[in-house]
């Protein structure tokens, strides 16, 4: 059965719709509570994972790019692994950005009912509705900037999703009905190749977590047990770095062969040649 | 009962979906014939209206007012047709031409580029390179047009109530979603919303009568009371004279006034 990935401008609407749809369909729901499990697995603090997801913009901005990549790799590896189960709805862990090329994953984007959200937020925070609305729009904009920075993707572009539903006009119950109806369509049935594609995404993520402990600026792809790692290196380091990558990646279960592509680190080469 | 507007990239099956939705719901379809309507009524050649609604304004055109005028004519024709309720519009920029009208279900049909290229190749019997070039140019024009004239990116999903990727669903699936949404409470037209659409149609009609000569005006209408806002005080006498002519040619006006203003109200057309 398919995977449903819910992405939303606001956490509240994603949670509401994801949980309602899970109830309607009898699916599991995978949300931000998974961060606690990931933190325990890798021996880190759960709030660091939350910061890496851009949930606290001030702390996220202070986080080094390498650290962010590492934390995001932990999240991707665990979430992709869990998505191998059937009948699951995923929300709140930006899976719409890293689940790529998996045909049985239905991606749904929810646009917030900004009026209602602003009223709720105003009530909770004791501020004016106007100020609450501005604050929400600000948070949405910052989250979009985060997605661009972390994954190079524009979250607001409709081509990223199979369905976009505006909760400002369409009631939550109607949205849940639409999602529940859509997921039954033929194109979202798991096929051998789509399950394989998901497994390969998951394998690549696991290899990335292994490599990012010691290396930075790497790209990992997996296909048929073969893992391709792309990175940068100075000429004099190439052999050693390739050997390290092959050894580390080879330790991950499911990896049969490791291919390494190292691109010249042009700027560092130039800097070193002047010394 | 609803008003549905379906926006689409070229060759993304939007027309087929629109026609099937109209057939399923028993609604009228508005598209190209709207331009003929506007062309007849305002005595503008159809090709000029097509260019106004399709091509992005060139550098010089941005300083001329013809395009704004032509859009006013198209908008007048569209809002008048929409005020009869139960319509599906699948021409360009429906989500913008019909904005600020409550209860309009705004749908966008999108598709992956490779899907659209394949359809274009099959339809026109051309190579992949040619098909891709045509589609990219068309997309670019549409985005530029919408951004320049309305400050909005047509690919921004915030402009719509529902966006459906047609290469992931069949046309009939998209029709199911749209019909389901159209029948929900949020999109049922009420007497109040119909009255507002008729007021907007009247405001658009008055603007269309005046915009050729008076470029910088905004028009509002509430219960047949039309107010024309102008920033240009120097041409007040001429505008008054023109208003008198409009009073006799446009039906349904209860009261018609001119206000000099620094800015226009947000609901002005």
What does this protein structure show overall?
The complex is a heterodimer of chains A (275) and B (269). Chain A is of the alpha/beta class and 275 residues long. Chain A has helices at 11-25, 34-42, 46-52, 57-62, 65-82, 95-98, 114-125, 129-151, 172-182, 192-212, 238-250, 266-273, and strands spanning 3-8, 28-30, 88-91, 105-111, 163-166, 219-223, 226-233, 257-264. Chain A has two domains: 3-188, Rossmann fold (3-Layer(aba) Sandwich); 214-273, Histidine-containing Protein, Chain: A (2-Layer Sandwich), CATH 3.30.1340. Chain A contains twelve helices and eight strands. A five-stranded parallel sheet of chain A has the order 2-3-1-4-5, with helices on one face. In chain A, strands 6-7-8 form a three-stranded mixed sheet. In chain A, helix 7 packs across helix 8. The longest helix of chain A is centred in the middle third of the chain and has 23 residues, at 129-151. The termini of chain A are far apart. Chain B is α/β, with parallel strands linked by helices and 269 residues long. Chain B folds into two domains: 3-187, P-loop containing nucleotide triphosphate hydrolases (Rossmann fold, 3-Layer(aba) Sandwich); 202-260, Alpha-Beta Plaits, CATH 3.30.70. Chain B has ten helices and eight strands. Chain B has helices spanning 14-25, 32-42, 46-54, 66-82, 94-97, 113-124, 128-150, 171-182, 191-210, 236-249, and strands at residues 3-8, 28-30, 87-89, 104-110, 162-165, 217-222, 225-230, 255-260. Chain B has a five-stranded parallel sheet with strand order 2-3-1-4-5, with helices on both faces. Chain B has a three-stranded mixed sheet with strand order 6-7-8. In chain B, strand 7 (225-230), helix 10 and strand 8 (255-260) form a beta-alpha-beta unit. In chain B, helix 6 crosses helix 7. The model of chain B has no long low-confidence stretch (mean pLDDT 82). At the A-B interface, strand 4, strand 5 and helix 9 of A face strand 4, strand 5 and helix 8 of B.
């Amino acid at each position: 059965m398919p995977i449903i990935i819910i992405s939303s401008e606001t956490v509240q609407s994603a949670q509401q719709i994801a949980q309602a749809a899970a109830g309607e369909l009898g699916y599991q729901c995978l949300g931000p509570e998974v961060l606690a499990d990931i933190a325990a697995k890798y021996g880190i603090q759960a709030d660091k994972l939350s910061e890496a997801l851009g949930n606290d913009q001030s702390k996220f901005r202070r986080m080094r790019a390498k650290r962010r990549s590492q934390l995001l790799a932990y999240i991707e590896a665990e979430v992709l692994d869990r998505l191998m189960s059937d009948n699951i709805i995923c929300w709140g862990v930006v899976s719409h950005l890293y689940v790529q090329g998996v045909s049985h994953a239905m991606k749904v984007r929810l646009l917030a009912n900004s009026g209602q959200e602003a009223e709720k937020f105003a009530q909770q925070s004791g501020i004016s509705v106007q100020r609450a609305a501005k604050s929400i729009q600000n948070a949405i904009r910052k989250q979009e900037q985060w997605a661009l920075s972390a994954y190079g993707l524009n979250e607001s572009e409709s081509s990223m999703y199979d369905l976009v539903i505006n909760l400002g006009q369409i009631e939550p119950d109607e949205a849940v009905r639409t999602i529940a109806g859509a997921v039954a369509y033929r194109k979202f049935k798991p096929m051998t190749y789509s399950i394989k594609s998901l497994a390969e995404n998951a394998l690549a993520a696991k290899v990335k977590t292994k490599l990012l402990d010691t290396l930075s600026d790497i790209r990992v792809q997996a296909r048929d047990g073969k893992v391709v790692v792309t990175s940068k290196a100075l000429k004099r380091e190439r052999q050693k770095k390739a050997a390290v990558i092959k050894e580390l990646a080879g330790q991950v279960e499911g990896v049969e062969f490791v291919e390494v592509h190292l691109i010249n680190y042009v700027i560092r080469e130039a800097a070193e040649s002047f010394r | 009962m609803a008003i549905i507007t379906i926006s689409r990239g070229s060759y993304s099956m939007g027309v087929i979906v629109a026609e099937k939705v109209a057939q399923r719901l028993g609604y009228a379809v508005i598209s190209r014939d709207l331009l003929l309507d506007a062309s007849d009524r305002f005595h503008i050649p159809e090709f000029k209206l097509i260019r106004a609604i399709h091509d992005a304004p060139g550098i010089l055109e941005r300083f001329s007012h013809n395009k704004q005028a032509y859009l006013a004519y198209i908008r007048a024709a569209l809002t008048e047709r929409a005020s009869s309720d139960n319509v599906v519009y699948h021409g360009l920029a429906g989500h913008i031409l019909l904005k600020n009208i409550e209860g309009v279900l705004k749908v966008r049909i999108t598709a992956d580029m490779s899907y659209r290229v394949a359809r274009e190749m099959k339809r026109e019997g051309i190579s992949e390179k040619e098909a891709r070039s045509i589609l990219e140019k068309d997309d670019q024009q549409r985005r530029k047009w919408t951004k320049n004239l309305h400050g909005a990116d047509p690919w921004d999903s915030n402009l719509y109530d529902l966006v459906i990727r047609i290469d992931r669903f069949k046309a009939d699936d998209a029709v199911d979603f749209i019909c389901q949404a159209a029948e929900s409470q949020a999109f049922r037209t009420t007497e109040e919303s119909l009255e507002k659409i008729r007021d907007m149609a009247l405001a658009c009609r008055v603007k269309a009568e005046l915009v050729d000569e008076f470029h910088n005006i905004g028009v509002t209408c509430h219960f047949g009371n039309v107010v024309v806002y102008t920033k240009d005080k120097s041409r007040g006498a001429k505008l008054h004279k023109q208003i008198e002519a409009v009073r006799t040619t446009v039906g349904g006006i209860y009261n018609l006034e001119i206000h000099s203003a620094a800015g226009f109200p947000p609901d002005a057309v």
